[in-house]
């Protein structure tokens, strides 16, 4: 059975984030999210308090506290509205709208924006309540607090799904961009992501800097946001994990590769300038069939959706398909893409990381 995150897992992670020292164990995505939302709360609280200090000299304190909270709330609403609608309505320099190979998940982004606003507003009305107690501010704090429960749980849980796979970097599918992928291939990637039954296999071929790893991480990231358990690993590490007998996980792991719904296997073969494949399908299968775990390994590979990051030549694609078919994978569940670049063109940097995507 594939692993999902339980309420107990969430509580343990929350306890670690609230009590643990980030200087000792590093910063997790869940800790960063908590710190980010505390920042949003503070950006509602502090300006409201400062505005109250100014207004209370000109009007009654109860009125000043409510006006301050209302003004700061409207200010942040305007800011977040512009921040959200900007990518939709505004053009890049030169008057051309930004082109997306994969459209951003606007619904997901809108939900994130609403969550931020709830924290802004809660901070503002909390400050209002502390500055001058009013029933309106008290009701606003209670209502906003109740409205925050589900978004806070959803996003904290989502961050747990995103940090457990140990992706090498954070990358959304909408950030992946290239001029060298046909719409048919985009549709195949969508097919892989939207397939309801497990056991889909996506082979990504392409030369250096074609964006294979970036695309694999982006696809898996979107599936993690859908609360699918995932694992990212290099091929060399996976070969060693094939030998593991114990299916249990350590205290700092929510699941291993056998319990994941999505598996990303990176660097199976190096590609150009290394001409020959280092790992053949037969050699890969020999690692799978090891000791008494061979039946387990075969079953897991058959039942897990896997993204295979291959070399630059897809001439061996059929051999890899035959290998998977030999362990029971249906041919209809295999997709192969080659992210080859057009001859004579410079590689487009498909992994241009936009550091301004997080609010």
UniProtKB/TrEMBL annotation:
GO MF terms, alphabetically ordered: ATP binding; ATP hydrolysis activity
InterPro entries linked to this entry: ATPase_AAA_core, P-loop_NTPase
Positions in coiled-coil regions: none
Protein name in UniProt: AAA family ATPase
């Amino acid at each position: 059975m594939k692993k999902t995150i339980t309420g107990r897992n969430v509580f343990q992670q929350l306890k670690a984030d609230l009590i643990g020292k980030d200087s000792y164990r590093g910063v997790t995505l869940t800790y960063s999210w908590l710190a980010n939302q505390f920042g949003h709360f503070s950006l509602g609280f502090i300006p409201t308090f400062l505005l109250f200090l100014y207004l209370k000299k000109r009007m009654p304190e109860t009125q000043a506290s409510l006006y301050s909270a209302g003004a700061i709330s409207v200010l942040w609403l305007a800011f977040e509205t512009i921040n959200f609608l900007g990518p939709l309505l505004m053009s890049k320099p030169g008057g051309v709208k930004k082109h997306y190979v994969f459209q951003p998940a606007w619904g997901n982004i809108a939900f994130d924006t609403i969550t931020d606003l709830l924290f802004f507003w809660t901070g503002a009305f909390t400050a209002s309540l502390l500055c001058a107690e009013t029933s309106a501010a008290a009701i606003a704090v209670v209502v906003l607090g109740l409205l925050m429960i589900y978004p806070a749980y959803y996003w904290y849980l989502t961050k747990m799904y995103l940090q457990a796979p140990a992706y090498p970097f954070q990358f959304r599918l909408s950030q992946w961009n290239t001029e060298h992928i046909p719409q048919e291939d985009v549709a195949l990637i969508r097919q892989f992501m939207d397939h309801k039954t497990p056991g889909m296999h996506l082979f990504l071929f392409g030369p250096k800097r074609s964006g294979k790893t970036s695309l694999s991480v982006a696809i898996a990231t979107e599936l993690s946001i859908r609360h699918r358990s995932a694992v990212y690993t290099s091929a060399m590490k996976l070969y060693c994990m094939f030998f593991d007998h114990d299916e249990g996980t350590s205290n700092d792991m929510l699941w291993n590769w056998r319990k994941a719904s999505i598996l990303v296997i990176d660097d199976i073969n190096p590609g150009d300038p290394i001409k020959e494949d280092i790992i053949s399908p037969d050699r890969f299968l020999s690692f799978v069939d090891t000791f008494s775990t061979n039946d387990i390994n075969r079953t897991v590979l058959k039942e897990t959706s896997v993204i295979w990051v291959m070399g630059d030549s897809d001439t061996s694609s059929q051999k890899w398909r035959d290998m998977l078919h030999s362990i029971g994978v249906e041919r209809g569940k295999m997709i192969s893409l080659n992210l080859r670049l057009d001859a004579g063109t410079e590689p487009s940097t498909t992994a241009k990381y936009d550091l301004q995507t997080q609010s």
